[in-house]
Write a structure and sequence with these properties.
mainly alpha; single chain; globular
Length: 464
């Protein structure tokens, strides 16, 4: 059917039966899941190829830590511009362009072996470029989920796209380990990057704003709109468009960022994301190296073994989102429904420190799997951001949120690299990761109070 016109406004009250009238939103969610899987596969290419590259290119642990962090430097710098671009030009165009660019830059990393004298510098530049291109990805995911899903389904939707980071390891770590062993580390970058280039084309055929989708039914649009979905986020009215253009100015952006940082809820969520991302970046960067250098596994074994904790993280992520929505649907306050799985999961993540006191490899993998399960369960920050972000600056708010996480992506690989150079052991690194999980719990229990949508000073109160 043709896209719905603006005058076909949804009714304010919609029977629950209409929830079954359409499932286009799940097609959108599936696309977000696939794209985010490739996104994280691109990020983790260096961690799988890292040990072989250290030998071939004579890279020290400290230098590898710098290379791991290159992504996050640019990812941090580009967060606010990326969020602004999403708010200004819409998720489809900006995100689709980003997918193509980060995939291209990933492919190019496979050629650095031809430039032996400058390989480290070129690799840093390309990793920097990948981070810059990926900046709009998670704010874009959050904007699309906020536009397509009612509040009571948003926890699961956000958890599913976020859990793709774990599924990426399940799906691609064994493949990347095999590529390194059988064909050489260069092919890790060319194969994974090539898949992303193809996916960028598919994106243009699948992703639309709710009112613009050629296959959406009126019943589904009414259902998601009445449930709190921001269906006009990328199709504003003339008045909203004028206000969005005004908000695009640097002065207004700074003012809005100040509002977010002064708000106790958003500040607590931002700080919590920093500590949660410390756990993420340990697994994305140093975990395979830990298995090889500390536990004596081969690269191929590390690729397969990495998939088990990642699978547990995926299960934990889906479970956390499902549990949160289930609690909210049964009348639990949104604040409690989000915090219960977050706090429970992150407490489980602190168990990673136990690996310092065991020697059996199978027990290490079991403990890591428990920690990763907990991290997945507790990683509901994007669901919370969809709940609290002001409508007009959802992209910018997501950019600030992601910027805090990107700082962890810089600090974590660098700090762990220098810990290894100084001590020759991962023991202190695991203490650091466990402490960060505990601090994330503190952020959500002590700093974050009520979870509700933040209103800008010049906005009318918004629905959840």
């Amino acid at each position: 059917m043709p896209a719905l016109d603006r005058q076909d406004a949804p009714a304010t009250a919609v029977p629950m039966a209409t929830a079954k009238a359409g499932r286009i939103r799940y097609l959108i969610l599936a696309m977000l899941f696939v794209v985010t899987t490739i996104n994280y596969a691109d990020r983790s290419t260096l961690s799988i190829a890292g040990d072989s590259m250290q030998e071939d290119l004579h890279i020290s642990s400290g230098e590898l830590g710098v290379l791991f962090s290159a992504f996050s430097w640019s990812y941090l710098i580009a967060q606010l511009p990326g969020g602004w671009l999403l708010d200004r030009f819409g998720s489809k165009k900006v995100y689709g362009t980003a997918i193509f660019l980060w995939s291209l830059f990933t492919m190019l990393q496979g050629a650095i072996g031809f430039f032996a004298g400058a390989a480290i510098v070129l690799l840093f530049i390309l990793r920097f470029a990948v981070g810059f291109a990926e900046a709009p990805s998670f704010p874009g995911n959050a904007r699309i989920v906020a536009a397509w899903f009612p509040t009571k389904e948003r926890g699961f939707a956000s958890a599913l796209f976020n859990s793709a980071q774990y599924f990426a390891t399940v799906a691609f770590a064994p493949l990347m380990g095999w590529l390194v062993t059988s064909l050489g580390w260069e092919h890790v970058f060319t194969v994974i990057g090539g898949v992303g280039v193809v996916l960028a084309v598919v994106w243009t055929k699948v992703i639309y704003a709710p009112r613009s989708h050629p296959r959406i039914q009126r019943a589904e649009l009414d259902y998601i709109s009445s449930g709190g979905a921001l269906v006009d986020m990328d199709a504003p009215t003339a008045e909203e468009d004028m206000r969005a253009r005004e908000a695009a100015s640097g002065k207004q952006n700074l003012r809005h960022i100040g509002t977010l940082l002064r708000n106790r809820t958003t500040l607590g969520v931002f700080v919590g994301q920093y500590f949660i991302n410390t756990i993420t970046w340990f697994f994305l960067t140093w975990f395979p190296v830990y298995l090889v250098q500390e536990r004596g596994m081969s690269i191929l074994e590390a690729g397969f073994v990495s998939s088990l904790p990642a699978l547990c993280g995926f299960v934990g992520g889906v479970l956390g989102g499902w549990l949160s929505d289930r609690l909210a649907g049964r009348g639990t306050s949104l604040t409690a429904a989000r915090k219960i799985p977050i706090v429970t999961g992150l407490l489980l993540s602190t168990s990673i420190i136990i690996c310092n006191y065991v020697t059996a490899s199978w027990l290490v993998v079991l403990i890591m799997s428990l920690a990763f399960f907990g991290k997945g369960m507790g990683a509901l920050g994007w669901a919370v951001m969809s709940d609290v972000s002001p409508k007009r600056i959802a992209g910018l708010a997501g950019g600030v949120f992601n910027a805090f996480g990107a700082v962890a992506g810089i600090v974590t690989p660098l700090l762990i690299g220098y810990i290894l150079d100084a001590t020759g052991s991962f023991d202190l690194a695991l203490v650091f990761v466990s402490a960060c999980a505990a601090m994330a719990v503190f952020s959500y229990l002590v700093i974050v109070r009520e979870i509700k949508r933040v209103e800008l000073p010049d906005e009318e109160p918004a629905a959840a």
